[in-house]
């Protein structure tokens, strides 16, 4: 375990962040109150990367993301966003956030377009209203997620997967430099998972930098450039999908390799098994 | 002479009702959205303490009520944000402390009669003076302008506070502004509706509008319409009926809610009957889906194995077969009436 930690986390304070780093964490701890939920996280995400953050439920994936977004307390370490200290970033909308929501629970009626428009707000003046160009961007965002013909539909009547895509469109409307998605595929039916994967693929084609928190790689796997495994509040693995697959393969090959087993698969079903994880078994529509 | 006088105070009361009927639902929709429907009621309780202090000290009660309600609003919002202490209990302490202080202090004032207390609690059209009216008009314009200007951001914060914080929208300041707007609305409405009933005029028109609206902006327009009908109608009725204006206004609003609920239910059942949903449909139509898209009135039909599918809510509606619809000269092809002339068995789904 020690060996792995030394290998996977770069020595903090030694190498400066690369020039194209959008997110740079050095030995950062995040949490609420005194007890951090994520400790000693060192992670650099460069422009154009598609990073999956995987790990079992409660491993600290979401806490790590919220830490990057400034939604919880950083108790140690440094956070650099687009080359400036995280606290000093004024233009927060450069980070596009797709929160984990099972439903878009609205206590009042609102159309998909109205929800997506809120994503445009950071880009317009305080007393300003959406202008023609802003409306176009909102419309295009809905189009990218395949909901152009449902712009005027009341969101609570949409399916779970469609609501999830409304949230992605909301983040896109702010024209972010990086998109942070928390479990975009969780609790979404098979047909909609497929649509979601297509949507993400479209974003990859557009060169959007993405960090996707998920506990099921599945259809996303082909899009990824990098996989980060979080467990027990620590980053346990950080590397290419190939290396991830190789190490996971080794685990399956040699059951006595308990070191790796502990690191990569702390809970037998936790890391990477989900409905999307078996694209060949024909059960996926 | 008496007629003139009556016309005079009726005029003032009607103008006050017009102001209140407009601004109360405007502010109220955000309270409904944040699930804080009862907060206005609590602020009314605290405003009573302000009124009492005004009556005892000889300051205009409207001003003291305004100060008390605004201070309470800010304290409440800060308590809610802290969250660690039991916010709910803290609110109860403030609210009941407010009304209790109001009742006790008012009994010490020179004109602290039960009748006087009733006027403030339940509203009385006789109490609106013309200097009050100027103040109310000023405050109402301020409330309406602020709410209108901040509407997109108030909506964003109430819709998803965490997201708003992540993208840098100032959540706490906006919530405090909303609380102050609520407190100010309570004071503006105090004379006409009464402190115990003002919350109803913020919430009930919105409850009714939520039953029929399909968008936030639509809901807001309906709520203001319901609010205006109830407040102006209630004041107008309370004079010939000789009833307290506040109660009359709120009963009218509740009546409108019930009628709206019945209409909405009837309409849903009617449309369900004439509404064909396409078979279980895993495919999502779109620009790139390969199915021919035919613009049709206010929606787009996709030709799917000879059937016309149109997006409706989370599913696709069956809009019949390709034949009759693809006729570009179809006489029924105007938005809103598209479905009425459709062949039997098709639906007006998106056109409703």
From TrEMBL, chain A:
SUPFAM superfamilies: P-loop containing nucleoside triphosphate hydrolases. Keywords: ATP-binding, Nucleotide-binding, Transport. Residues 251-266 have a biased composition (Basic and acidic residues). GO terms for molecular function: ATP binding; ATP hydrolysis activity. Residues 23-257 form the ABC transporter domain. Transmembrane segments: none annotated. Residues 248-285 are annotated as: Disordered. This is Zinc transport system ATP-binding protein. SMART domains: AAA. It holds the Pfam family ABC_tran. Belongs to the ABC transporter superfamily.
TrEMBL record, chain B:
SUPFAM superfamilies: ABC transporter involved in vitamin B12 uptake, BtuC. PANTHER family: ABC-TRANSPORTER METAL-BINDING PROTEIN, METAL TRANSPORT SYSTEM MEMBRANE PROTEIN TM_0125-RELATED. It comes from the Bacteria. Residues 329-352 have a biased composition (Low complexity). One of its GO terms (cellular component) is ATP-binding cassette (ABC) transporter complex. Belongs to the ABC-3 integral membrane protein family. The chain crosses the membrane at residues 12-32, 52-76, 88-107, 163-182, 188-208, 220-241, 247-266. This is Zinc transport system permease protein. Residues 313-328 have a biased composition (Basic and acidic residues). Pfam families: ABC-3. It is found in: Cell membrane; Membrane. GO terms for biological process: response to zinc ion; transmembrane transport. It is a multi-pass membrane protein. InterPro entries: ABC_BtuC-like, ABC_TroCD. Keywords: Membrane, Transmembrane, Transmembrane helix, Transport.
